[in-house]
């Protein structure tokens, strides 16, 4: 919430409500950090075995994305995954 004194409020005041004062690399680094935090939290809840199984499933997909999906499509894919994760139970 604006003006609630939270760290997110401080960031909005410093960098704009949509982080418009940050560059593309800075935003990608922030996104990477947020996703890493979410992944770590999920692994803590689900356990290491679930993470290992998930990694074996995802590894070939990641290789295929790297080789066969144009970089211009990656941000849309990230957006789709984020939207799915927001509503997944």
Describe, in plain words, how this protein is organized in 3D.
This protein is mainly alpha-helical and 89 residues long. The chain has a domain of 33 residues. The chain has four helices and no strands. The protein is globular, with a radius of gyration of 16 Å.
**Distance between the first and last residues' Cα:** 25 Å
Would you count the extended β strands for me? Answer: 0
Structure class: mainly alpha
Average predicted local confidence, pLDDT: 95
As a percent range, the share of strand residues is under 5%
Can you count the helices?
4
Biggest sheet architecture: none
Order of helices and strands: HHHH
Q: Please state the overall shape, judged from the principal axes of the Cα atoms.
A: globular
**Gyration radius, rounded:** 16 Å
Residue ranges: pLDDT <50 for 5 or more in a row?
Answer: none
| Helix residue percentage | over 70%
Question: Short summary of the structure?
Answer:
With 89 residues, the chain is mainly alpha-helical.
């Amino acid at each position: 919430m604006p003006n609630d004194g939270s760290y997110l409020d401080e960031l909005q005041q410093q960098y704009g409500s949509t982080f418009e004062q940050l560059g593309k690399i800075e935003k990608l680094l922030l996104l990477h950090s947020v996703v890493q935090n979410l992944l770590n939290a999920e692994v803590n809840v689900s356990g290491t075995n679930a993470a290992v199984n998930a990694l074996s499933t995802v590894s070939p997909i990641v290789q295929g994305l790297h080789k066969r999906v144009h970089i211009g499509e990656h941000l849309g894919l990230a957006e789709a995954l984020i939207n799915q994760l927001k509503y997944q139970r």
